[in-house]
TrEMBL record:
GO MF annotation terms: oxidoreductase activity
Domain of life, source organism: Archaea
PANTHER family on file: PHYTOENE DESATURASE (PTHR43734:SF1)
Lineage: Archaea, Methanobacteriati, Methanobacteriota, Stenosarchaea group, Methanomicrobia
Record's protein name: Predicted amine oxidase
SUPFAM superfamilies reported in the protein's UniProt record: FAD/NAD(P)-binding domain
Gene3D superfamilies in the cross-refs: 3.90.660.50, FAD/NAD(P)-binding domain
Biological source species: Methanocella arvoryzae (strain DSM 22066 / NBRC 105507 / MRE50)
């Protein structure tokens, strides 16, 4: 089959690497680079990122690692040890695996029952679930902010339950050697080795549809006939590429309601370690920063010799971007008192360059009203998939749907 992939982000490259084993695949990317929000951004000798952190939520045993192995992408992923720590109000650190130590005695007694109940929760938000347990809400906000760029109040508890199950199943974070580029470079290599093509600086203007089925794409005014289309640009942007007569009313209505998640990343340079380990530092008692990582303990090549790269993340809580950045910078001063560091870059993610095209827990799956047109990426994640793990789960599901449709 002849397949067009729109967008060379992580979802598009995973799809192309898998499908190019047996099919004729061409990837079209409007930027002059592949990787989207999951690649390295060289700056002053540091390897910053265009979006995602140099961290994979379930490390070498998670959905992304398994799919990379399946498609033949050789990526070394090193498990983070410790997995994470929590910064307390008094400045002390506790293991993220022993977070119950920070809770009140009354809440500690109820944690086992809460955990069992959480795994089966189907309704409400995480904040609703924790009503009556105010000492757990900051921890939930820190986790949701770090992992999903959301708050506990706007994250469905059903999604949290699925995440908890995946944490039990797949394990904890890991770091890809070479950072994000280590992953997408390997995938691009697989696509090309399989005979596929990645066309950069090439925009798809339209998806051609006949009798409700995708039959081609328009590129620079030229119609390219295809048998199927995989879109990595999200449901909303994808829906603008084909004739609106094929846009089902219920689907169109849903598209008007879903929203992207937004966040801010602050990148720091320091000669001495700030976090002190390669896991996640959760910061539940700050005004804005949700979590921080320092992956140069595992991969020193991501910074100049003798330097560390430290990156913080915070979900965007208001429309005043400058105020949000200011509060994040103030948080970092309090988190690292007396430490010497410089701010390399502040990056914001929203609108058409968001953290997720659709907030976690509200993903719309891989299907569209047009037969043969599938969506992958961070607007079509699998249930309970944290960021790139969700992208991998979504691609895996798309491949199953593809196989059912075409054999």
């Amino acid at each position: 089959m002849k397949i067009a992939v729109i967008g060379a982000g992580l979802g598009g490259l995973l799809s192309a690497a898998a499908l190019s084993k047996e099919h004729d695949v061409t990837v079209y990317e409007q930027l002059d680079m592949y990787g989207g929000r999951f690649t390295n951004l060289p700056y002053k000798g540091f390897q910053l990122t265009t979006g995602a952190f140099h961290m994979i939520p379930h490390g070498p045993t998670g959905p992304l690692a398994l799919l990379l192995k399946d498609v033949g992408a050789d990526v070394e992923i090193v498990r983070s040890k410790p997995e994470g720590t929590v910064l307390m109000q008094d400045g002390k650190l506790v293991s993220a695996m022993n977070f119950v130590d920070v809770l009140s005695p009354a809440t500690k007694l109820k944690v086992p029952l809460l955990a069992m109940k959480a795994l089966g929760q189907k309704t409400g938000t995480a904040a609703d679930f924790l009503k009556g347990f105010p000492d757990m809400l900051p921890l939930a906000d820190s986790f949701c902010g770090w992992a999903l760029s959301a708050t506990a109040a706007n994250t469905p508890m059903e999604e949290i339950a699925a995440i908890l199950k995946n944490m039990q199943k797949y394990g904890m974070p890991g770091i890809p050697m070479g950072g994000c580029s280590g992953v997408v470079d390997a995938l691009a290599g697989v696509v090309e080795d399989n005979g596929g093509r990645i066309n950069l600086s090439t925009r798809v203007d339209a998806v051609k549809v006949e009798d409700g089925r995708a039959t081609g794409v328009s590129v620079a005014g030229q119609n390219v006939p295809v048998d199927a289309v995989i879109s990595n640009i999200g449901h909303q942007l994808t829906s603008k590429l084909y004739d609106r007569k094929y846009l089902e009313p219920k689907y169109a209505e849903v598209l008007t309601k879903v929203k992207p998640s937004a966040g801010i990343k602050i990148c720091l340079a320091a000669e001495e370690p700030l976090v002190g380990h390669p896991g996640v530092l959760f910061t539940p008692y700050t005004r804005r920063v949700n979590g921080i990582n320092e992956v140069t303990h595992t991969d020193p090549s991501l910074a100049p010799k003798g330097m560390h790269l430290t990156m913080s993340h915070q979900t965007l809580r208001s429309a005043d971007m400058q105020q949000e950045i200011k509060l994040g910078l103030e948080d970092l001063k309090k988190i690292f008192p007396g430490k010497k560091y410089s701010v390399l870059m502040v990056q914001s993610y929203k609108d058409d360059w968001p953290v997720n095209r659709i907030s976690s827990g509200y993903d719309l799956g891989n299907l569209t009203p047009v037969k043969g047109l599938f969506v992958v990426g961070d607007g079509a994640k699998g249930k309970g998939g944290i960021e790139v793990e969700g992208v991998a789960l979504g691609v895996r599901n798309m491949l199953e749907l593809f196989e059912k449709a075409y054999g």
